[in-house]
Amino acid sequence: TETFVRPGFDSPTRQSFNGRKFKEDDEASHRGGLRMVLLRLSNEYRLSENDWNLASSKANSIAVQIELLEDIIKADGKFDLTAELEKLKEEHSKRKECLLM
To answer: How far is CA 87 from CA 19, 67, 100, in A?
Structure first.
């Protein structure tokens, strides 16, 4: 029964499952494969983080729209859309300033 010895580990024979000795190219190939797996995982994490940020942004936008509609309903015909939009712009610019600090 032959055993597989992974490159990079000290072994008296340093042989693979087929009996040939490992070379530097094998170790580099093994490290390259690990690098590719790590890059793929990193990209998947980044993409899922981007999706999460996009969904969060959409949810926040919907929440603001709901608040605006609630204010319109509560105003019962006495709602000033221009004033409310200006108020929202001010709140948005304040939040933006806080994020930049």
So the answer is: 75, 12, 20
